[in-house]
TrEMBL record:
Residues 897-906 have a biased composition (Basic and acidic residues). Pfam families: Acyl_transf_1 (PF00698), KAsynt_C_assoc (PF16197), ketoacyl-synt (PF00109), Ketoacyl-synt_C (PF02801), PP-binding (PF00550). Signal peptide: none annotated. Transmembrane segments: none annotated. Residues 925-1006 form the Carrier domain. It comes from the Bacteria. PROSITE patterns: CARRIER (PS50075), KS3_1 (PS00606), KS3_2 (PS52004). Keywords: Acyltransferase, Antibiotic biosynthesis, Phosphopantetheine, Phosphoprotein, Transferase. CDD domains: PKS. This is Type I polyketide synthase. Residues 878-911 are annotated as: Disordered. It comes from Streptomyces enissocaesilis.
Length: 1018
């Protein structure tokens, strides 16, 4: 059999709310058994006449805490539907989500895939309680009950297209589910499967059965293979594993807990009673599993037995195992059963055992058996080649093989053979990527559907990260791939794990900081790159980023190599060496081009693809490269020639900034033939350039009129008539280089608008030398075209300030993102910029952010679901209850101030007048009764209070409505409103995007409050 990898695990068992706590419980031989919670049934009443008909002999068992808690809002399930759902469905939904995350997969990424779901389950007590009171059966009760729905719920909410089925073979159900899941992988039907089991004990029915059958332990504890063994103790819980073919898991770099080598299932047929165990069938299923796994019995180091702690069951199982292991001289196989810690978890027993074995192989330690101290001598374990572990067993570094048995009460037996994961899969190698990657800092991300959920999960991540010694890069890389897909996007840059933990906790504690670090993007961003021009340079610019970021180094080196044939000296070395020559024109222009090109390419490689491009003066060369209008080699030749030819021009020119509109200076400029308008950077920001004496005359006149001026420190009069002597020589080179039409929109500062099918060819670049830089016009057009994020690609912020002045009148000002902030900038600033872009809706290429050795999956805190909402029966089952009286209506409950507080939903939820006013004002309506009736109907169908509803609430996405609920909504509306005689569901469907749309539609068709409802809705 091709090996199957266990790549994800999640569970909740008595005394163990998560996987880590489960392993801790096992390693300390902990006891998860206690008194039956009053929430379930009054065990003392049922125990009051122990041994008599209809009573139990115990008041104890293994129970999980808070089985009524369910984060229905996370799964967009209405309160009314959640209240009707079997808690087994709820537990599986949350556990499946966390197991997929543990597999290193963002659950949303499985949407549409042929992922299968296989669930083992044998109890359906919720249906027994709530489908027998026929007057209270609702539409939601159908989907809220039934074995099939435990699997189908997972497939539905994760949008999985593979097989989805529930399995009931009694106590072996969940191991049989794993067997079927493995076969689905082996047949190629699925590439990923979610397999699990669940059991929630809601009534004493099985406890009574075990007592009457003589199978129940008086202390409620299973004591497997112990001299004290005296029966079964009930337990409950949920466990889920994610399985993949080992080859696929290794190829995708997933961490593997353990490997399933082989499984087998059989039936004992007509034996000595349908509920009695059969030794021969058990030994046959063991042999079949060994053969399928390709192992000898002597290779099995330990076996997790079915081990219920009944006299007959333990004896039969030992004899079956002894058939295969009795000849092990001096090396008896270790034997144990987790039922000693939890009780018999019935339909979840097989998955509880599988998770124990997988964790034991993963940690290379087999936990001691809880009741091993008093071994049942009558079982003669040694003669059968077996031993109970009185202390944990350390496994060797070499591969170890383990067995796992699970036997159903009706005779369906299952066995699995597992093996420790190959070393390269247990601790995966770094995931390969097409780029070298690495920006010198990490970006930790978490998403959540609501602000409250985000805070809760940030705190969970902080606590987990603080408790482990894991590099921040690997933690963040994992968070980027796993904790994604929800509306609220949190992102923060961090240089080490301690800083990350402190930052997460600070964000949770400071609402303003959390708001700054969280985005709620409404759609895809339109990102613009702005490339700075001459004047932004300084010695050693971007040296810190070159030091920190392998990605930036690669692209600056690439630009340097393209420039070197034309400059005769390494521009990169000049930049990084802090040479003051960077201020000389012949070096300034190629140096700025190299920096702009490297930044633009780095951002693009990180997944920040520009939708719009703009360059100020020489910044347009980098923009042209990114737009595909110039090849790198051509741009490098042009910019090097431009800088050198300008450097050769005679000195004596200058530039002057004037705080005045360009139009107000036209006459003065026209009067000076050697002066021109060099740039228009804003409504009151004009730059003049030309002969020094001519500039002085203009300056004198302006100062006399109290117009502010400032001379710029430049060597030449750029973008002025004094550039004309170089144009012919430059034109020859430009003609040889050529240039094409941009593939990405370029907002030209020569034209002051976007280039519309126009080539950035030789004529363009020659004109570019002397033409005014129409930055204000180009930037204004860019803003008008919907740029949401302006990323300034240059050695320091220059253009952002100019654009802010232009955008003051805009109702939706874009975000300004600065990958480099100045002389001290390094990888941290780039990471901070990437975090901001992610919050705005960009989906980076996360592999490129990290060095290869950081691309290793790590275990993060699982998703922390809310426990605020509680859904349970109105009252626990009481002693003497009959089928007719033990079926109370299901009601939502909520936790208040840390304590459970039952809250029965009113048949007609009250609606605050403020809520209706908001609705009416939001729609421009004053007909309160119609809005109130609509709110009342929506609230009643979904189980929402008026305070939970708003005009923007979407019926499908936010409130969890489906076709059945829409039909009921139509009926509720017809009860409350007149004028709906011809209303059909087909009429309603197009108008149900939100509550506000529904109310607007009701007004349009002339609906009014029905008689008898007007006063109540007034």
């Amino acid at each position: 059999m091709e090996p199957i990898a266990i790549v994800g695990i999640d569970c909740r068992f008595p005394g163990a709310p998560d996987t880590g706590a489960y392993w801790d419980l096992l390693m300390r031989s902990g006891d998860g058994v206690g008194e039956v919670p009053r929430q379930r049934w009054d065990a003392r009443e049922f125990h009051s006449t122990a041994g008599s008909e209809g009573r139990t002999n115990t008041t104890e068992g293994g129970f999980i805490t808070d089985p009524d808690a369910f984060d229905n809002e996370f799964f967009t399930i209405s309160p009314r539907e959640a209240a009707a759902m079997d808690p087994q469905q709820r537990l599986l939904l949350q556990s499946a989500w966390r197991a997929v995350e543990d597999a290193g997969i963002a659950p949303q990424r499985l949407a549409g895939s042929p992922t299968g779901v296989f669930v083992g389950i044998m109890g359906n007590e919720w249906a027994q309680l709530h489908l027998t009171d026929y007057a209270k059966v609702t539409a939601q009760a159908g989907s809220g009950n039934g074995y099939c729905m435990t699997a189908n719920r997972i497939s539905y909410h994760l949008d999985l297209k593979g097989p989805s089925l529930a399995v009931d073979t009694a106590c072996s159900s969940s191991l049989v589910a794993v067997h079927l899941a493995s076969n689905a992988l082996l047949s190629g039907e699925c590439d990923t499967v979610i397999a699990g089991g669940v059991n929630v004990a809601l009534t004493p029915a099985l406890s009574i059965f075990y007592t009457q059958a003589g199978l129940s332990a008086p202390d409620g504890r299973c004591k497997p293979f112990s001299a004290d063994a005296n029966g079964i103790g009930r337990g409950e819980g949920v466990g889920v594993v994610v399985l993949r073919r080992l080859a696929d898991a290794v190829a995708d770099g997933q961490r593997v807990y353990a490997v399933i080598r082989g499984t087998a299932v059989n039936q004992d047929g007509r034996s000595n009673g349908i509920t009695a165990p059969n030794r021969w069938a058990q030994q046959d299923v063991l042999g079949a599993a060994y053969r399928r796994a390709g192992v000898e019995a002597s290779e099995v180091v330990f076996t997790e037995a079915h081990g219920t702690g009944t006299v007959l069951g333990d004896m039969m199982e030992v004899k079956a195992l002894g058939h295969h292991h009795g000849g092990r001289d001096g090396k008896p196989m270790a034997l144990g059963s987790v039922k000693g810690n939890l009780g018999h978890t019935e339909g979840a027993a097989g998955i509880a055992g599988m998770i124990k074995v997988a964790l034991a192989l993963h940690h290379r330690t087999v936990p001691a058996s809880r009741f091993a101290a008093k071994e049942n001598s009558g079982l003669k374990l040694r003669e059968h080649g077996l031993r109970l572990l009185k202390a944990p067993l350390r496994l060797p570094a070499t591969p170890s093989v383990a067995g796992l048995s699970s036997f159903g009460m009706g005779g369906t037996n299952a066995h699995a053979v597992l093996e420790s994961a190959p070393p390269h899969a247990a601790r995966p190698r770094p995931r390969p990527a097409a780029v070298p990657g690495g920006i010198g800092s990490a970006v930790f991300t978490v998403t959540a559907p609501t602000a409250d959920a985000l805070r809760r999960n940030l705190l969970a991540q902080a606590d987990t990260a603080a408790a482990r010694r894991v590099p921040v890069g690997a933690l963040s890389w994992t968070s980027n791939h796993v904790k994604s897909g929800h509306r609220y996007r949190f992102a923060v840059a961090a240089s080490d794990t301690a800083e990350l933990v402190a930052g997460l906790r600070e964000a949770v504690a400071d609402p303003d900081l959390l708001a700054r670090l969280t985005g709620l993007p409404a759609g895809r961003p339109r990102t613009a790159f702005l490339f700075t021009g001459q004047g932004s340079q300084y010695p050693a610019m971007t040296a810190g980023l070159y030091r920190d970021s392998a990605l930036y180094r690669a692209f600056l080196d690439e630009a340097d190599a393209a420039l070197l044939p034309h400059t005769g000296r390494s521009v990169r070395d000049l930049i990084l060496g802090g040479d003051e020559a960077v201020h000389r024109t012949r070096w300034t222009q190629p140096a700025l081009f190299a920096v702009g090109y490297a930044l633009g390419r780095t951002l693009a490689e990180l997944g920040v693809r520009p939708a719009l491009l703009l360059g100020h003066s020489v910044g347009e060369y980098a923009a042209a490269c990114l737009a595909g209008a110039l090849p790198l080699e051509g741009a490098a030749r042009l910019i090097a020639a431009r800088g050198e030819l300008m450097q050769e021009l005679p000195e004596g020119g200058g530039m002057m900034s004037v705080r005045a509109p360009a139009d107000s200076l036209r006459e003065r400029v026209a009067a000076e033939p050697l002066v021109g308008v060099a740039a228009v950077n804003g409504p009151q920001a004009t730059v003049l350039s030309g002969d020094l004496a001519a500039l002085a005359r203009i300056e004198s006149g302006l100062q006399a009129e109290d117009v502010r001026t400032r001379r710029l420190q430049v060597s030449h009069a750029f973008h002025s008539p004094l550039m004309r002597p170089m144009l012919d020589r430059f034109a020859l080179i430009a003609t040889e280089v050529g240039g094409g039409v941009p593939e990405v929109p370029v907002y030209s500062t020569v034209r002051g608008r976007v280039l519309d099918g126009e080539a950035m060819d030789a004529a363009y670049w020659v004109e570019h030398v002397g033409a005014p830089v129409l930055f204000a016009d180009a930037a204004a057009r860019l803003l008008e075209d919907g740029a949401t994020h302006l990323v300034e690609a240059g050695p320091q912020p220059v253009l952002s300030g100019m654009v802010r002045l232009l955008g003051r009148a805009s109702t939706a000002a874009p975000a300004h993102v600065l990958p480099v902030r100045g002389t001290e900038s390094g990888g941290r600033d780039l990471a901070t910029a990437l975090a901001e872009l992610y919050r705005g809706g960009t989906d980076p290429r996360w592999d490129a952010v990290y060095a290869p050795e950081e691309r290793v999956p790590q275990r993060l805190a699982p998703y922390a679901f809310s426990d605020e909402h509680r859904y349970w029966t109105r009252d626990p089952v009481r002693g003497g209850a009959t089928a007719e009286t033990a079926g109370p209506a299901v009601v939502p409950q909520q936790r208040s101030a840390g304590r459970e507080q039952g809250r029965e939903q009113a048949a007609e939820p009250g609606l605050p007048s403020a809520a209706v006013a908001v609705l009416d004002l939001g729609r421009g309506r004053t007909d309160g009764p119609v809005a109130r009736a609509a709110l009342e109907a929506v609230g009643q169908v979904g189980g929402y209070s008026g305070a939970e509803l708003a005009p923007h609430s979407r019926l499908y996405e936010d409130l969890g409505f489906d076709s059945v609920m829409i039909m009921e909504l139509k009926n509720r509306l017809e009860e409350r409103l007149t004028g709906l005689a011809s209303l059909t569901v087909q009429d309603l469907l197009p108008r149900l995007s939100s509550i506000g749309d529904l109310i607007s539609y009701l007004h349009e068709i002339g609906a009014i409050a029905a008689p008898g409802h007007e006063e109540r809705t007034a």
